[in-house]
Design goal:
By secondary structure, the protein is of the alpha+beta class. It is built from eleven helices and seven strands. The protein folds into two domains: 23-282, CorA soluble domain-like (Beta Polymerase, domain 2, 2-Layer Sandwich); 291-353, Methane Monooxygenase Hydroxylase, Chain G, domain 1, CATH 1.20.58. It has a seven-stranded mixed β-sheet with strand order 2-1-3-7-6-5-4. α6 (166-179) runs parallel beside α10 (245-311), α7 packs antiparallel against α8 and α7 runs parallel beside α10 (245-311).
Length: 357
């Protein structure tokens, strides 16, 4: 599972300082601009920040999405054009932030964690939003694929999304981010079903490693997704002037989705702990079966070892009539083997009768 790692400034760095990521970590930067109202929509790709600022003077809603990891210069230009707070821009650049909502004068800054499955691997992206009265700026390093459904809805003439403000656009994006958790958890459910079958059929050390991996990933996923309930709850309090009252109805539904995601996550986390217990029980049961088989074998050989030990004593048969006279019998050796075979057979019959083997 690929999680982002929080990047820290060196101790003593002034608040709001923007430090660029190493070149090896920087994804190609692209900016998409979407300006719309109930009657029209305009979509432009690969625009410059300077081209976006004039749209703020319009009555329409302006959505600017920044793909990839922005540079310090780009963030400073964005901050100047949209009057974004430097502390919030610092959190955009330093990924790995805890999901949160922070008010800044006439804006809201929101951080969310968006899980997704890429080539069978689970990845968590930080998604950041700046909400203004008539604009929304979003940041996501992973690209724009997850947001295409929202763009598709915006292109529909007469859609609710087109006729509402920037706060409703924010709700739609938050709802999309939260709902991305369902297919991710579904992939965990499939993994756990396969692991459960492996445990019941033939548990190995490799199975134990997979169980620990799933359990660890669920714990990390919970740590990243749990605060999103607080984000939606903070928006629902109604003291945010930028969120209209009629949007709160939809945010309540979004809050229900966060609860469903967390309930499902808790269920899978408990199941992973239960699978670990089942694995340990399976291993112990297998060990007990091995010990039972070894005990049966050892028990069968106890009387046989006694017989062999008795006839292994070196008494002189010619010294007296009681010194193992059967050693002189012509069929003595054969009789000993028959006796030992009979004893072993009777013991096996007894063990099977008692269902010990």
């Amino acid at each position: 599972m690929a999680f982002f790692t929080k990047r820290y400034h060196p101790p003593g760095t002034p608040p709001g300082t923007l430090v660029e990521a190493p070149a090896s970590e920087t994804a190609p930067l692209r900016i998409q601009l979407i300006d719309f109202d109930a009657k029209r929509i305009m979509i432009r790709d690969d625009v410059a920040v300077s081209e976006c600022a004039p749209f703020l003077q319009h009555d329409s809603v302006t959505w600017m999405h920044v793909r990839g990891r922005p540079t310090e210069a780009t963030l400073r230009e964005l901050g100047a054009a949209f009057r974004l707070h430097s502390l919030a821009l610092e959190d955009v650049l330093n990924i790995g932030q805890r999901p949160k909502v922070e008010p800044f004068d006439d804006q809201l800054f929101i951080v969310m964690s968006m899980p997704e499955v890429v080539s069978g691997l689970v990845r968590v992206e930080q998604v950041s939003f700046f909400l203004g009265s008539n604009f929304l700026v979003s940041f996501c390093e992973g690209g724009f694929a997850a947001f295409q459904e929202i763009v598709k809805r915006l292109n529909e003439q007469g859609s609710r999304l087109r006729s509402r403000g920037a706060d409703f656009l924010l709700y739609s994006l938050l709802d999309m981010v939260i709902d991305r958790g369902f297919p991710v958890l579904e992939s965990f459910g499939i993994q756990m079903e396969v692991l459960e079958e492996q445990i019941l059929e033939s548990a190995t050390r490799d199975t134990l490693g997979k169980i620990h991996t799933v359990k660890r990933e669920l714990i990390l996923l919970r740590r990243m997704l749990w605060p999103q309930r607080e984000v939606i709850n903070e928006l629902l309090r109604g003291d945010q002037a930028l969120v209209q009252e009629d949007t709160l109805i939809y945010l309540r539904d979004c809050y229900d989705h966060t609860i469903q995601v967390m309930d499902l996550l808790e269920t899978y986390r408990d199941m992973s702990a239960g699978m670990l217990d089942i694995y340990l029980s399976s291993v112990n049961n297998h060990m007990n079966q091995i010990m039972r088989l070894l005990t049966v074998i050892a028990t069968i050989f106890i009387p046989l070892t006694f017989i062999v030990g008795v006839y292994g004593m070196n008494f002189d048969r010619n010294a007296g009539p009681w010194n193992m006279p059967e050693l002189g019998w012509p069929y003595g050796y054969l009789l000993v083997w028959l006796a030992m075979s009979a004893i072993a057979g009777l013991m096996l019959f007894f063990f099977r009768r008692r269902k010990w083997i």
